[in-house]
Amino acid sequence: MNTPACTDLTVLDLVPFGQTGGEARFFALRLERPQWADWKPGQFVMLRPAGWALDMLWARPFSICRISTRDLVIFFQVVGRGTARLAQLRTGDVVHVWGPLGNAFAMEPDTPTLMLAGGIGIAPFIGYAHTHPKPWNLWMDFGHRMPLGCYPFESINEKIMADSHHEEGPEDLSRFIETIGRRMREFRDQNGLVLACGPTPFLRTVRSFALEYGVRTQLSLETRMACGVGACLGCVCRTTEQWPDPAKAGGNVQTCTQGPVFWAEQVTFDDETAAPPTAADVPVQACER
Amino acid sequence: MIDMHVTLPGGLHPLTLNNPVMTASGTFGYGVEFTPYGDLTKLGGIVVKGLSLAPRRGNPMPRVAETPCGMLNAVGLQNDGVDYFVRTTLPKLPWREVPIVANLYACDPGEFGELAAVLAAEEGVAALEVNISCPNVKEGGVIFGQDPRQAAKVTEAVKMRAGSKPVIVKLSPNVTDIAHMARAVEDAGADVLSCINTLTGMGVDINTRKPLLANVVGGLSGPAIKPVALRCVWQVAKAVSIPVIGIGGITSAEDVLEFLLVGAHAVQVGTANFIRPDFVFRLVDELAALCERMGIEQWDDFRGTLKV
Ligand SMILES: Cc1cc2nc3c(=O)[nH]c(=O)nc-3n(C[C@H](O)[C@H](O)[C@H](O)COP(=O)(O)OP(=O)(O)OC[C@H]3O[C@@H](n4cnc5c(N)ncnc54)[C@H](O)[C@@H]3O)c2cc1C
Ligand SMILES: Cc1cc2nc3c(=O)[nH]c(=O)nc-3n(C[C@H](O)[C@H](O)[C@H](O)COP(=O)(O)O)c2cc1C
Ligand code: FES
């Protein structure tokens, strides 16, 4: 895996997405290009603006959407204190950035691959769709609660085949869950691969289907992260007996360095119940964290 | 130009650091996590994540929470166990160039002694740091570091099996009289003291009505605790004749000098490592530059010169 580095990058611009009045909550942040040798879709960066005072110590983790010859792009949603402050960045501001961090999604160009994204979990798939050598083997189902224009869905839809599912009520959600289940069975029948990123309740649903239907599935987990480098042990997830290193099977591993992408059968969600999920298990807000 | 080296006197083998800036246990992993971000041999010393005899899975999630100017943690001493560290991790560290300090965690004095014996046999371990902010399981869960008799017992148990390695005892601030604790462990044979560990604290969410940490209470660290840490180091340094390592909320070269001013020989940087992973490497450079600017030429001329 590529060696990460910590660098100071200048903000090129911050573009609000799909706003229909009111305060903007979705943004594409463009930073000057870091001098990294390489990166892979599914990897992430830690961001902390140089101008932040000591009242907020931690950086925040964000998936890499794209790195071009000119820029590094991330896409974020305002959900709390840190992201609200990131939304105040201006062109020319300096941000401490370390990355690329973590592992990456499996990329098997010839395998039919299903991408399941919930809300802002669409972010890592932008890079995936754009760097995949055979995008015609990709399909995406995207569940979202805010209007579609808030998300960079178009930039994916222009590359690959994708469906979006707007969740406005409980019926929409149960329909979305049904779709996910059906689609996962289809991809299993084609010996396909499933990749999922979104809020934890969404991932829990995908994981249960993965185990039930026996389809190769990877989940990109979200946890609170203080360091991003494996040092604080604040971001751990629980492994199952299937974890490759027997010493860590059934133990805790760092999401930031061992993940964020995990095979569905190798990790478990602590409070997981054995019963298959129903629409009631996944609140509507789930797809927006 | 100042010679950055510091020697912590005492013990059979005084501990010599490349400079006064060490990393604090639990905030710098085992050191290897930070090799992409800086040259480990630049540091004064590296204190690794707390080690126990057997591997520990640690506490349930969430384990960390950000608070104003600090953070809470209840990681619960998740670690690979001392054998894994000695066999797999230690050989990867540049221990000939930078002192590696093992941080010890155990549930009773006997276990502390066993841990010390394992680590004392390792050439790559420069010193032992004893975390006494943990409960004595055999004595009804009383925190070693809150009872001078218990703290002394642990110190003796470690000292007895530590061979020639200097023994650092890390004090808890969650006590009424930290100077009293300091004297108790000094009398029990500690070579060096480090202080402070985290302050107990908690955070809650009024919307979910849940605590921020699954463990409910945790340890507060970061700049929020610096004034408490400075006070502790000042009181301890006055009370004992062994060297003191200052810890708590350090985020700048000025902060380092503040701790030296109140009597510390060296410092450890903890939570600041999360501000950015190259933080402590840059701090070493900044400290040298600050000493140059302030005309400090010898640590001995500056240490403990607070005018009161
Ligand atoms: C590997 C990884 C990649 C991510 N990629 C993206 C991305 O591309 N775009 C994006 O918008 N967000 C992404 N996130 C989530 C993002 O890091 C959090 O939304 C952000 O840290 C919240 O910070 P805050 O200070 O605004 O929220 P806080 O004030 O800290 O918290 C507000 C709310 O958000 C929740 N929260 C805080 N941190 C996280 C977290 N890391 N994951 C989930 N919930 C959290 C809190 O529990 C709380 O409910 C990613 C997270 C991870 C771990
Ligand atoms: C996430 C985290 C884990 C810690 N783990 C340990 C540990 O294993 N052993 C120990 O003695 N201290 C541990 N500490 C305490 C620190 O070493 C240090 O004493 C404390 O954080 C105060 O310093 P700071 O304000 O610079 O962080 C930990 C602190 C944090 C934040
Ligand atoms: S974020 Fe610190 S260990 Fe993963």
TrEMBL record, chain A:
Its cofactor is [2Fe-2S] cluster. It comes from Nitratidesulfovibrio oxamicus. The keyword Iron-sulfur applies. Gene3D superfamilies: Dihydroorotate dehydrogenase, electron transfer subunit, Nucleotide-binding domain of ferredoxin-NADP reductase (FNR) module, Translation factors. Pfam families: DHODB_Fe-S_bind. Belongs to the PyrK family. This is Dihydroorotate dehydrogenase electron transfer subunit. PANTHER family: DIHYDROOROTATE DEHYDROGENASE B (NAD(+)), ELECTRON TRANSFER SUBUNIT (PTHR43513), DIHYDROOROTATE DEHYDROGENASE B (NAD(+)), ELECTRON TRANSFER SUBUNIT-RELATED (PTHR43513:SF3). SUPFAM superfamilies: Ferredoxin reductase-like, C-terminal NADP-linked domain (SSF52343), Riboflavin synthase domain-like (SSF63380). Keywords: 2Fe-2S, Electron transport, FAD, Flavoprotein, Iron, Iron-sulfur, Metal-binding, Transport. PROSITE patterns: FAD_FR. It comes from the Bacteria. Residues 4-107 form the FAD-binding FR-type domain.
